[in-house]
Design goal:
TIM Barrel; globular; 8-stranded parallel barrel; alpha/beta
Length: 331
Amino acid sequence: MKKIPFSILDVAPIIQGGGVSDALQRTVKLAQMAEEHGYTRFWLAEHHNAPNIASSATSVVIAHVASQTQSIRVGSGGVMLPNHAPLAIAEQFGTLDALHPGRIDLGLGRAPGTDPITAKALRGERHTNGANFPEQLEELQSFMHPAKHVQHSIRAIPGEGADVPIWLLGSSDFSAALAAEKGLPFAFAGHFSPTYIVPALKLYKQSFKPSSQYEQSYSMVAVNVIAADTDEEAQYLATSMHQMFLGFIRNKRTPLQPPVHNMDEIWSEQEKFMVEQQVGSSIIGSKQTVREQLQKLIEATDVDEIMATAYIFDHEARLKSFKLLASILQD
């Protein structure tokens, strides 16, 4: 298999019977394992009003994870920029960079990461449905430029001149095109939008314009990866993820559920189809199965980096899944 960097995306999942504190402790242990086993970066995603996700205050969680690790890059996958004032994000990530120099990434998305009512509560008078995302991105970049390039009286301190790479995240071609236009690295959300993985990454690479920060394109795809000793065990563990996405379809958010032996007792045929449409790129199985499917994904996308995520109920099984993935990369 082609040797490329591998990373982890996490949302600090809250499990049934657990709480926020437990979820955050498990996230730290996962990040420490990732560092020990050679993963490149560990990103956390912003979501709100979600009983199964503890990473809402994303910058705070990033700070904690970075403080509990030594070398792995830690960042956002992503911060939903329309939810925030660009100045605030510049200051937050400038502070993170000052605390953990050379280890912080800033991945930006334009979706709300929540339902419309919660998005309005977050954004207030700035509620624009992400329509002004390119303008917000430009404003954020201006705050993070070195001091000699600052064109306005307001300065982000910390933030100004911070060594924080900005990534654009997306699940369609919008952010792919914008990242290419701006000469920024691009990460595609293949873990819930599999249909557009190849077209979006192809558009990004073909349209990329070199920038002062990046002479060449750099792409990453996030994908669900669940590995176990056997295909059957991995499929069993994956039913927690299937139940989570089924909850999205039913508009019923609950903490992450334990795995079950038969999903057909839970979902209808139509619901099964809808869930599989969302998680169709998932890589689930034994080491051999995961290796083969990863190879196919890398060949199909010509991607520069893979970011794996895994909604697994049992913490030890989750750690083992990522350890198995790491062993595949080192074979």
